[in-house]
Each structure stands twice: as C-alpha cells, then as structure tokens.
Amino acid sequence: MTEGHTITIEQGDQHVRVVHGGQILAETDRPLVLRETGCPDRYYIPAEDVRADLLTPSGTHTVCPFKGTASYWSLPDAADLVWAYPSPKPDIARIKDHFCFYEAEVS
C-alpha cells in the first residue's frame, strides 16, 4: 500500500443480507470485512452465498491501484449493483470469489 493508505480484511461474524426489490440477493454469516482508508467498511460475501443466477454481468470494469480490476453485475432495475475482484492484488487475495454490494443490511 502507499503511505497513508491501508486496507485490512477481517473474517466477520455479522449476519449480512442483501435485499433489493423485496428479493434476497445474498445472505451470509461469514462475510469478509474490508476496511480501506477513506472508504466505508465493505462486506465481501462468499460466492456460494450470493444468488448469482439473478445477476447479469455488466460491461463495467474499474481499476483500483490497491485492489486490482473489478467486474460488475446488474439487475434489470439496478445497474452495477454488485462487484467482485476476480484476480485481486496479492495483498488482498482473500476477497477472491467474494461479491460486494452497494446495499447490505448487517445484523
């Protein structure tokens, strides 16, 4: 990481649920919690706990100098709602095969 910028990843035990339009898109008790300088905490959900069958791959890709290239997925009424890093940088390799949503309920 560059000086002053940190990313930490911890195994969470929070219950995380993602609901959109009344439909559960993801639900897990084993999220990874990613904390990054200047960003809100993000919950990365294991792929097995995501209803990927409801998501459509998007053509959107973004590049983070710290995490790598992100790919995005959409719903018919919510573009680029979820993202993942298929080949994350080595320092954050734990988030491989995990999805992150803009909207997540934590309990």
Which features does this protein show?
107 residues; mainly beta; Metal Binding Protein, Guanine Nucleotide Exchange Factor, Chain A; 7-stranded antiparallel sheet; DUF427; DUF427_sf; DUF427 domain-containing protein
Radius of gyration: 13 Å
Largest sheet: 7 strands, antiparallel
What percent of residues are in strands? over 45%
Compressed to H and E, one letter per element, the order equals: EEEEEEEEEE
The total beta strand count reads: 10
Number of separate helices: 0
- Do you know the CATH topology? Metal Binding Protein, Guanine Nucleotide Exchange Factor, Chain A
Instruction: Please name the CATH architecture.
Output: Beta Complex
Shape: globular
N- to C-terminal distance: 31 Å
The CATH homologous superfamily is termed Domain of unknown function (DUF427)
For the residues shown, what is the average pLDDT? 94
